[in-house]
């Protein structure tokens, strides 16, 4: 087994806190990244910014993964060689296949039990997003500019960077072990400070307070770890749990799912804190209030939007945002461009997401269930929602205000409860415990969803034809991507495209 550092202080803290030693080192790593981010924002020289970011990135990786970090370096070398020596039309596909295969190897190693707690595959998963986005964006840069969609136009680049620059991008420390990660063009504009061209002296505006706010939110979420220990995941699959009162079981499943987001909240907000602190999260200023700086360029989670989502699209767009963007931009959309049917592309995207997460059966049960409920949610929106909200454009908002309120709250509660129910599969990991957990409440959401699908299939639920015009007009209005930050092209790219 590869050597993993065992620092005396982290071992002592692990003994005192009861947290695994790897978890303590992970916390140290995130703290080092936040402090380094504050230092990095003061560095002006481009070469020094690159080198400092790369060195701190290697330190963070070694603190958590030790010499197992060779997996990340090896994959980075192979990816760069593929992009450089294969044709631009082929390299993204080969890169995607290679990095996903390498991730699968890591999952197999972890699944077979030969891995320690902080397994290298966790970071390999995050870096897969960077490797794929780099390959596709470079490939897009070789295409006619007018043939790219708006999202691709602001991310494509024509000139292949040196291997050192690529290495500095991949292993830049802010968000490295947690996310969010940046696209290559975002990183280059951040490093050469052109991202801040509209700011005084082209320097990042003060970001200490918003960064510390994210850090303190992440720290506060440690309280959820304590609560979670009182409502452990394993209880749901036990025979004793099946004998509890039905309503208590529903309450337990929902509570366990909600507090079980604890570790995700912690690493997400810590990662966002470092990205904001160094300035990489800068997204311009508010148009109405020029004194208000926006730091939402790169986020892992929009917590309020995630917890108040009333449809699957909004839910997915605000949770684990780097992964959601990767699946949308480089899996789902790329399949649509190749002529794959929309429904098939959506299902395949869920499958890719499940494989990316790991080999545990619970992941496939989770994402398979989400796919089923997402399809049903779309049908409910088209068939049932118009009975509650006739005028999507709200020209007379008071007329149907009561019905709209019922739909909005009902859809939100059903979606969040459905997510909590599906999460049982994700948390239990294995097939038997996952099915046992669902069956403890008689798998009612699955059975109800199947019955609803049958009703739609036989035409028992009819579309309100007299409202279809409003729905169609509204769908055209609201079917937009979640607002993505504008990424300016480099001067070199603009010149090579004739100033476009």
What are the main properties of this structure?
single chain; 500 residues; mainly alpha; 25 helices; disordered C terminus
3D structure, described in words:
There is one protein chain. With 500 residues, the protein is mainly alpha-helical. It is 65% helix and 0% strand. It is built from 25 helices and no strands. It has helices at residues 8-17, 21-40, 46-65, 70-85, 91-111, 121-141, 150-153, 163-170, 184-191, 208-220, 222-230, 239-242, 246-259, 262-278, 303-307, 312-317, 321-337, 342-357, 361-383, 385-388, 401-428, 431-439, 444-457, 468-478, 491-496. The radius of gyration is 24 Å and the shape is globular. Mean pLDDT is 87; it is low at 471-500.
How do the strands and helices of this protein lay out in sequence?
Elements: H1 8-17, H2 21-40, H3 46-65, H4 70-85, H5 91-111, H6 121-141, H7 150-153, H8 163-170, H9 184-191, H10 208-220, H11 222-230, H12 239-242, H13 246-259, H14 262-278, H15 303-307, H16 312-317, H17 321-337, H18 342-357, H19 361-383, H20 385-388, H21 401-428, H22 431-439, H23 444-457, H24 468-478, H25 491-496
Helix pairs in contact: 1-2, 2-3, 2-14, 3-8, 4-5, 4-6, 4-8, 5-6, 6-17, 10-14, 13-21, 17-18, 18-19, 19-21, 19-23, 21-22
């Amino acid at each position: 087994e590869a050597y993993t550092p065992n620092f005396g202080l982290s071992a002592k803290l692990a003994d005192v806190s009861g947290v695994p030693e790897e978890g303590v080192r992970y916390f140290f790593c995130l703290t080092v990244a936040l402090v380094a981010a504050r230092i990095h924002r003061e560095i002006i020289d481009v070469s020094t910014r690159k080198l400092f970011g790369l060195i701190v990135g290697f330190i963070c990786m070694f603190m958590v993964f030790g010499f197992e970090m060779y997996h990340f370096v090896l994959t980075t070398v192979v990816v760069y060689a593929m992009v450089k020596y294969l044709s631009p039309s082929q390299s993204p596909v080969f890169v995607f296949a290679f990095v996903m295969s390498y991730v699968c190897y890591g999952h197999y190693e972890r699944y077979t039990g030969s891995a320690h707690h902080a397994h290298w595959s966790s970071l390999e998963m995050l870096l897969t997003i960077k490797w794929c986005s780099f390959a596709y964006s470079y490939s897009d840069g070789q295409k006619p500019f007018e043939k790219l969609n708006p999202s691709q136009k602001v991310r494509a680049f024509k000139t292949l960077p040196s291997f050192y620059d690529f290495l500095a991008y991949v292993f830049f420390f802010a968000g490295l072990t947690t996310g969010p990660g940046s696209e290559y063009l975002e990183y280059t504009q951040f490093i050469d400070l052109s991202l801040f061209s509209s700011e005084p002296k082209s320097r990042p505006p003060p970001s200490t307070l918003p960064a510390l706010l994210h850090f303190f939110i992440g720290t506060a979420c440690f309280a959820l770890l304590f609560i979670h220990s009182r409502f452990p995941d394993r209880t749901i699959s036990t025979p004793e749990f099946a004998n509890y009162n039905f309503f208590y079981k529903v309450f337990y499943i929902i509570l366990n799912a909600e507090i079980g987001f604890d570790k995700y909240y912690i690493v997400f907000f810590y990662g966002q804190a470092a990205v904001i602190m160094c300035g990489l999260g800068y997204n311009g200023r508010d148009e109405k209030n020029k004194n208000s700086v926006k730091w939402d360029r790169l986020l892992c989670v929009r917590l309020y939007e995630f917890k108040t989502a009333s449809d699957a699209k909004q839910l997915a767009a605000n949770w684990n945002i780097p992964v959601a963007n990767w699946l949308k931009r480089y899996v789902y959309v790329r399949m649509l461009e190749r002529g794959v049917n929309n429904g098939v592309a959506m299902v395949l995207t869920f499958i890719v997401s499940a494989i990316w997460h790991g080999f545990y059966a619970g992941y496939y049960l989770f994402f398979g269930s989400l796919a089923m409920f997402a399809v049903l949610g779309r049908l409910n929106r088209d068939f049932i929602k118009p009975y509650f909200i006739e005028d999507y454009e709200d020209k007379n908002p008071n007329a149907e205000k009561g019905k709209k309120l019922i739909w909005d709250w009902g859809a939100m509660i059903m979606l969040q409860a459905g997510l909590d129910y599906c999460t049982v599969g994700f948390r239990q990991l294995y097939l038997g415990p996952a099915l046992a957990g669902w069956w403890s409440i008689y798998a009612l959401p699955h059975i109800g969803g199947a019955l609803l699908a049958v009703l739609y299939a036989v035409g028992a639920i009819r579309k309100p034809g007299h409202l279809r015009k409003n729905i169609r007009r509204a769908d055209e209005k609201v079917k937009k991507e979640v607002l993505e930050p504008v990424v300016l092209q480099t001067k070199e790219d603009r010149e090579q495209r004739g100033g476009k």
